[in-house]
């Protein structure tokens, strides 16, 4: 699809980047946006009070599309993004981080998706990691994204492009950092169509995981109310032990006893039954998602316990899950 560009008119896309002391990678990140095959965009870079060479590096780029916004005080990423979006002139907002690299066709491919589907409100993409870890490059439909948001954040923030109009109703919430993106997606998903493109269109630096791990406890604490909001929208909160089980899942609480573990397994079964009656999600897809969540939890639960503490909860599990755990350990330790 050939997209028409009008370089002398208002930009169609506003790329918004927040940065704080990003001198190490920001030049490469900026250049990857300036090298996009689609040219009709503005590039708002919000500097959250950097004290390193970030400002010098940004000002070294001589491109009229860059709009540099310098904040005197460091007030956080949510405030920075809201400030940038408030000044954006484009019809679409494309997120970008200061340490990633957008592939040359990223903006073009995402804009094509919006043009092909007028109902689309958010378009994310797959990513390529800077480590050898393999990722599944699968596209996600609106309903698949909604299912996954019940249990955690499934969208990679710097790949997202959104219609600017939705920010008339929603903003990033500073009180939800470092889950400000997950919080926003759970609001948007109910009113705008969302998709994830199968193609990786961004190079995502693995080092972010170490940054996230430093705030992991805070992140997991915030995941609980966000996931609770998702379930409240479905009106599925009357299920037995719902609040306790959701907290275990959302906060990755791997120290629960055998009784609580069995309760969690029954809760997941109850969710499957509830969906069969309510028909919110396609049954096979929802079953697959629940099984993935169940097995992810069991894998981490048994990996995080000493041998002596694994016996009782293992014996209390139903046979299919015992078989899966045995298979996992055999594959892991007999390699």
Can you characterise this structure?
Helices cover 47% and strands 16% of the residues. With 335 residues, the protein is of the alpha/beta class. The chain has two domains: 13-213, Spore Coat Polysaccharide Biosynthesis Protein SpsA, Chain A (Alpha-Beta Complex); 235-333, no CATH class. Strands 3-2-1-4-7-6-8-5 form an eight-stranded mixed sheet, sandwiched between helices. Strand 1, helix 1 (26-34) and strand 2 form a beta-alpha-beta unit. Helix 8 (216-234) packs antiparallel against helix 9 (242-250), helix 9 packs across helix 10 (258-278) and helix 10 runs antiparallel to helix 11 (283-303). The longest helix is centred in the last third of the chain and has 21 residues, at 258-278. It is globular. The termini are far apart. The model has no long low-confidence stretch (mean pLDDT 91).
Q: Strand order of the main beta sheet, please?
A: 3-2-1-4-7-6-8-5
**Straight-line N-to-C gap:** 48 Å
N-to-C order of helices and strands: EHEHEHEEHEHEHEHHHHHHH
Q: What is the fold named in CATH at topology level of the largest domain?
A: Spore Coat Polysaccharide Biosynthesis Protein SpsA, Chain A
What is the 3D form? Answer: globular
Number of strands: 8
Q: What are the low-pLDDT stretches, counting only 5+ consecutive residues below 50?
A: none
List keywords for this structure.
16% strand; eight-stranded mixed sheet; 13 helices; 335 residues; 8 strands; alpha/beta; 2 domains
At a glance:
The chain is about 45% helix and about 15% strand. It is α/β, with parallel strands linked by helices and about 325 residues long.
